[in-house]
Amino acid sequence: MPVEEALERLLALAEAAPISETEEVELADAEGRVLAQDLFASVDLPPWPNSAMDGYALRLADWHGEPLPVSQRIFAGHAPAPLQPGTCARIFTGAPLPEGADCVEMQENAEVLDDGRVRFVEALAPHQNVRPQGQETRAGEQVMNAGTLLGPIELGLAATLGHGHLRVRRRVRVAVLSTGDELVEPGLPLGPGQIYNSNRRLLVSWLQRMGCEVIDAGILADDLALTRQCLANLGDVDLILSTGGVSVGEADYLGMALREAGELALWKLAIKPGKPLTFGHFRGVPVIGLPGNPASTLVTFALLTRPYLLRRLGVQQVAPLRFDVPAGFDWPKPGNRREYLRARIEGGQVRIYSNQSSGVLRSAAWAEGLVEVREGTTVSPGDSVTFIPFSELLG
Ligand code: AMP
Ligand code: MG
């Protein structure tokens, strides 16, 4: 199954199972959440014309080159009186322009005479250094759409509009399962044949960063009865996300237990790393089974699971930003799966980690993102390749 098709199917499944409940949260608690309302401006921004500089406000039509007396001082946060004809006003950045003024000269171009009058040295133009009312937004204008992922910039904009609370989608509850008899939690001693469980930490941290509520179901032994029991105890979640046990090997107890309780599809994806991926339902709860090799887990989470989760929250823009960079490597053998190479940009070209094995997570820690090499293509140094930065996928 081509990557595009898998993504399309997952997004369709996500749209069929939206997390539609919402809650009202304080702006301070809205980081990483998904906006559930369209946001409108209740006032013009800025609400009144104001000064972009520290300087002097005047009315250009009334000025003929002579020095002007200063009739008032206007600080940011204070309401001015109308400008007295034949005068200027001392004004500071962000302060409202007095009625009648239409121009601000910066203080660097103004000379204060001994008698207190101000002489303007340069030619003046109408509206210079004035930020007009409503230049950013007009009252009633829609400024953000429902489905926007809220980061620091969006929260800053919501604050500009005066919103102290926002209505957001509730958090997605994701149960994370790591399958495999060989797995041991870091910090504990390793027995014969055992390895440390890396996928759990990778996924739990990533999901938390995405604003999900994570139910960490721990390590699931390769045992059918224990697997059944673990699934039955998961409680109320929106997604069961497992790793490992999805290759068609013999120890596919999760697959067996899921097939007993519902349906399960095994997709053979044209993606490398990460060929096998399962999707199914357990008692109505969607299940995504990611491959167990850490780099495969990473790639299939980043490119398929992350967009699926965001779409369930109503986010439309789920495709990460990607851009073309010149290759600083050779990839001479065309593959029949789409490859996502762990890569970083150095000196204006992209380099790949020396070992691209799906078991090597260090490749991804070294890397800054993924280079996409399409099926049936090769890469020579200098060719343009597509790069997807991790910063996009982790945001
Ligand atoms: P499986 O799909 O269960 O056959 O796993 C494929 C490979 O990924 C095997 O080498 C597993 O030991 C490894 N693996 C599976 N789960 C994890 C995990 N949580 N952390 C690290 N490696 C894993
Ligand atoms: Mg296994």
Account of the 3D structure:
The protein is α/β, with parallel strands linked by helices. It has four domains: 3-20 and 171-312, MoaB/Mog-like domain (Molybdenum Cofactor Biosythetic Enzyme, Chain A), CATH 3.40.980.10; 34-42 and 137-169, no CATH class; 50-131, Beta Complex (Molybdopterin biosynthesis moeA protein, domain 3); 323-394, Beta-clip (Beta Barrel). The chain has helices spanning 3-16, 152-160, 199-209, 224-232, 253-261, 294-312, 362-366, 390-394, and strands spanning 22-26, 39-40, 50-51, 55-58, 70-74, 88-91, 103-106, 110-112, 118-120, 130-131, 142-144, 165-169, 173-179, 183-184, 195-196, 213-220, 239-243, 264-268, 271-272, 276-282, 285-290, 323-326, 338-346, 349-352, 369-373, 384-389. The strands form eight sheets. A six-stranded mixed β-sheet has the order 16-13-17-21-20-18, with helices on both faces. The mean pLDDT is 95. The structure holds adenosine monophosphate and magnesium ion. The site of magnesium ion (MG) has 6 residues, from loops.
Give the SSE layout:
Layout: H1 3-16, E1 22-26, E2 39-40, E3 50-51, E4 55-58, E5 70-74, E6 88-91, E7 103-106, E8 110-112, E9 118-120, E10 130-131, E11 142-144, H2 152-160, E12 165-169, E13 173-179, E14 183-184, E15 195-196, H3 199-209, E16 213-220, H4 224-232, E17 239-243, H5 253-261, E18 264-268, E19 271-272, E20 276-282, E21 285-290, H6 294-312, E22 323-326, E23 338-346, E24 349-352, H7 362-366, E25 369-373, E26 384-389, H8 390-394
Parallel strand pairs: 5-6, 13-16, 13-17, 14-15, 17-21, 19-23
Antiparallel strand pairs: 1-12, 2-11, 3-10, 4-6, 4-7, 8-9, 18-20, 20-21, 22-26, 23-24, 23-25, 25-26
The protein binds adenosine monophosphate and magnesium ion.
